[in-house]
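go over this record:
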Amino acid sequence: MKNEIGKWYRSGSPWIWMNAGAVAISIVMVIGLLFLLTVRGMSHFWPKDVLQATYAPPSEYSEDTATEIIGELVESEQVPAVQIASSGIPVDESQAFYQRNLMKLGNRDLTGADFSWVLDDFVTDISYPEGVVTLERREWGNFYGFLAEIHEQGQLVAETSNLTGVDEPLWQDFNQRLERALEIFEEIYRIENDEIGDINYAVERLRLQQRRLELNGEDTPANLAELDAERETLDAQYLELQLELNGLYEEIGRDSAVFVAANGQETEIEFSEIVFAYQPNTLGVIAKIGTYFQKLGEFLTDEPREANTEGGIFPAIFGTVMMVLLMSVFVTPFGVIAAVYLREYAKQGVITRMIRIAVNNLAGVPSIVYGVFGLGFFIYIIGGEIDQLFYPEALPAPTFGTGGLLWASLTLALLTVPVVIVATEEGLARIPRSVREGSLALGATKFETLWRVVLPMASPAMMTGLILAVARAAGEVAPLMLVGVVKLAPSLPLDGNYPYLHLDQKFMHLGFHIYDVGFQSPNVEAARPLVFATALLLVIVIAVLNLTAVALRNRLREKYKALDSH
């Protein structure tokens, strides 16, 4: 028996089973993590039913503690009675546990808090009235209540006699006015951010041109007159747009609605403050699916609001992808050139081995160290010199002497270049020596052999290094906090203004957005599902970038397979 066990052990089978088990556990953990992110993140956008109930917890200070609650049930948990009693609520401690529910009550402008814990044993008169309305607002978060009246120019134009029921004519009128307000808001946004934004950008360029003329002693009356003429044209365009904006602001502020919230509180909300409105308790499954995708689309395409706890994350998606693409452009040539030199040109000896050891050690340096280096070298030294040489008219305001897309991309390129070097060198080492000798024998120079034969055959290995680089760079946060990422970027680094790609501009990033929402948010409960949703989206973005690189690598591998087999 012992001999059989020893023979089985020496055959290496235990190690095979251990490796298989480790791989299986890793796969299960990854799938479990993705499942958790999907359930906790994507369920946030599902339109939940809204309940109305009476909550009357016991109190040692007052007999009448009953209050009305209107909101969504978020989650439930069992809490020891001792813990509840220690918070000041006199409960029966002989009962081991109480169930408490986290309710999203919204109406932060009325109550001061979006969420509240309620004890299930003291909730009564639960109902799901069809007339309850859920509003997503530009400020103050969600609102839950009943639509009572519609006002136009301060005058009552429609009201309901059935507050908790569905008043179809009133609701249709409300939706028509809301659609009108949203169209006007989109027009206002377009004018302010596109047309007026372009004018402001052009005015700033004129200011810098005038300052440059002054520094160069070329501020002659003729040159200044030309700038003044351009400025007058821009001012006239601005005044015209401002008049149009004033009219739109008057139009969008025309309509308002009166809602009745919990405990009979009435509040008037302008249609310009509303982003989305629906009656959740009247929605069927198909309607809920449509609402779900509408809210998910808003999350993917809109800008964040309410300290990043509401709205969308499109600027963060755009910034992440743009930074990774620029990083790939920078890291690939540097990594490949370094690998080619070490493998093909450098004399193999002690110095070369030390360089390889240094490259391998660089791969293990903490990322925050690269961030500090990028801040000191790229921003303060190189960026400061660029400002002095090319942008003196903008000083003391820095142009490249502060964090931006360029420095963030270069910092991450420096962070990931060891991975590309190692992968490319391994690919070059796998190419048979006979291939090189055959090319040289046919009269090709060493450079031609390298450029036309060796590098194409090693391109799958280069893509492997790039895949690993993208996977690491896209999830980094610590160095980016020092070299260009911000909580909220008012504009994208790519727009229609020359030079179109603004490498000096700060940007948003999904990884930093997760950190900010998860740990810096003033509204923790509202931010929690967005952390899961954003984390899932970051995984998807990285997977898409990697799959694109993998597809390209596979095509290159198939292309050069026949040559490699020889």
Observations:
- Residues 22 and 28 are 10 Å apart (CA to CA).
